Amino acid sequence: MSGKRAGIFEAESELDVSGFAPKEAVTPKVRPEQVRAVSEAANFQSREPPREILAGSPKREPRRYRTGRNIQLNIKARADVIETFYGIADRKGWVLGETFERAVAALERELAGSV
């Protein structure tokens, strides 16, 4: 061995990489039904929601509006309440932020009257 390290930017020694080649990708010939059967036998918990939930939830169109509202609020609610909320917004033609603001204002009026 020589005491000098090889420089990576030196042009005098060309690195021979002709012996390197990509390996062949071997894909197993397993059907999805077989994978499902093995995973269910091993009590593997799937991350996918049940098909009934997917079938009952129609895909919504994206809602993107420039309204000046720039603070996000993430809440958990039941599916029926969320569908009602979206239904109100759609019927009235309001964006979700406006629907939320009106709901909060209505709640404030209701609470002020009951005190």
Summarize the structure.
The protein is mostly helical. It has one domain (32-113). It is built from four helices and no strands.
Give a verbal description of the structure.
The chain has one domain (32-113). The model has no long low-confidence stretch (mean pLDDT 83). By secondary structure, the chain is mainly α. It contains four helices and no strands. It has helices at residues 32-41, 51-56, 79-92, 96-113. 42% of the residues lie in helices and 0% in strands.
N- to C-terminal separation? 90 Å
Backbone CA Rg: 30 Å
Strand share of the residues? under 5%
Element order, helices and strands? HHHH
Task: Please give the structural blueprint.
Layout: H1 32-41, H2 51-56, H3 79-92, H4 96-113
Notable features of this structure?
elongated, 115 residues, mainly alpha, 4 helices
